[in-house]
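Archive entry. Fields below.
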Amino acid sequence: MANHRPWPRRAVDAGQWSALVASLAAGERTLLGLWGDADCVHMALLGEKGRDVAVASFSCAQGCFPSVAARHPPAMRFERAIHDLFGYEPIDAPDERPWLDHGRWPVRAPLGDRQPPAPEPPPYPFLTSVGEGLHQIPVGPVHAGIIEPGHFRFTANGETVVRLEERLGYVHKGIEGLMTGAPIARAAKLAGRCSGDSTVAYAIAFARAVEAALAVEIPERAVWLRALMAELERVANHLGDIGAICNDAAFALMLAHCSALREKVLRASAACFGHRLMMDAVVPGGVAVDLDARAPHILRSLVGRIRAVFPRLVELYDNTASLQDRTVATGRLDSALAQKFGCGGFVGRASGRSFDARRDLAYPPYDRLEFEVPVLAEGDVNARVWVRIREVEQSLRLIEQILVRLPAGEVMAATGEGSGEGIALVEGFRGDILAWVRLGGGLVERCHLRDPSWLQWPVLEAAIEGNIVADFPLCNKSFNCSYSGHDL
Amino acid sequence: MRRILFDSLLKGPLTEPAPSGDDPELLALGRELKTALDAWFGGSLAIRMVDAGSCNGCELEIHALNNPFYDLERFGLKFVASPRHADMLLVTGPVTRNMREALERTFDATPSPKWVVAAGDCARDGGVFAGSYAVAGGVGVVVPVDLHIPGCPPTPLQLVKGLLALTGKAR
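PREDICTED_STRUCTURE:
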């Protein structure tokens, strides 16, 4: 396909499609995303070495495509979402239940042929578990804390979870529908609001996809400022989550100290970039805000402050037996499963999957920065906490390097009103975010954003098995999958 | 742990003074509602937070209300786990069609007298998500709203100001 950058997109026939599915099933490639478009479905794949990306497109002129999930389960929820949004039928799909469509929209297949809705919301049969003494615990969509909505159906034998089934889609806002036909600036605003905690990473992913599509080079200073914001976002989220995980194990002291540190990061971000979460600071073409003269000083003293306090908190985490008792060996994610699902971020890296888009795809400026990607093999809550601790340390190193090497100059380039297709894979704090756009005359014809959670939510169902119900908050928080990013 | 606790004792609290309630709009609202609050709730308020479709940005800032800098509980405001324990619903997000029923049921489960505060720009009219097939609209479309706190997301300070206006405690 001409005009698809930076990686190729090819139209494939049924034979080639099934060969690709076979290579996914054999573990030779990793599924990055599967999404619908006018008259076709696209599948993004990561090569064996984790450094090459390709997109395969299969024509859906007949309204159907051969199911990927039939042989490669990670595709299951993608296919259910494609069916809900576009109406395409995955042939031989193992699960035909709807996913995002709860029967409440005024239209079916809103991005496809727009059918009238069913008169009644259809029933949603949960999977069954049969055995003596089993009982079900339904939780949500409104949870007991300050968190996003989703439904969990536990089947328990006494205190032990034998099955967890998630039902998501409650926060589906139709973002891809809103983006269709929107000007680039409006679409960028929407992209930054897919998942509030990853607003910088989403904005970078969307901007990079747009810039690839239009073959726009952005100023060097903007490249570095984007990385600076991305690392601040990563530090803030990791600090907040490390505290929250400990709080779920009834160790509130860690939450108090970590949330105070997180607050300091957010205040520094607001002082430097004008917004605590740095929303709308990254835009296609560059960045919307430039650092002023006092910003480097603010950020250096922030890094110094975290360096002074954080090691003592890490020591506290490491030396508190009551905390370790809850986190070690809890919610173990098998490394083979993490590999198969292509789990990104700390979820994958705590289970031995060494992939980091910053290092492996080496997008700028990370190709010129020094950092390590921490990997552990245990796959339990404790390992996910430790990977996050190490990532905080690496991000502080990165922030310092960026401050030293930040070039002077412009921060915005004109994007123009061209046409083309672009794709980007950007490392957010949670893992790799995929953005794909097709532009026509300055408008977004189609945009797809894939949150890392799509590939992490399903393995949480597996990781919780055999744990006690009371450890679910701990496991769930250690994954911290996004609801809004997933539901879109 | 001993060292950290000892250090914290010496350093004193991080908590910052309450924001001034100099915003005339909020002051007026505060005066109007203070009488009701004192009469009905004895000066304290239990909040049940409901995400009806937000991007999670508002939740992050609402979380921050509990950090040592803002420490909302010192004003008599606390977050509770069940709508049955709540005096007030704090609702974020454009209400998605998939969440509409859950929000209605949470509202119905909250005993009267009750207030609803909508937090964030989306909660007013759907914000950037208005017009989507999947969005019902602002919170007011589904349940009656008493106060709206603007912002995308509202900062913790804006939230504290808004909530204090509601309880009439802003100085």
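CURATOR_NOTE: The longest helix of chain A spans residues 220-248.
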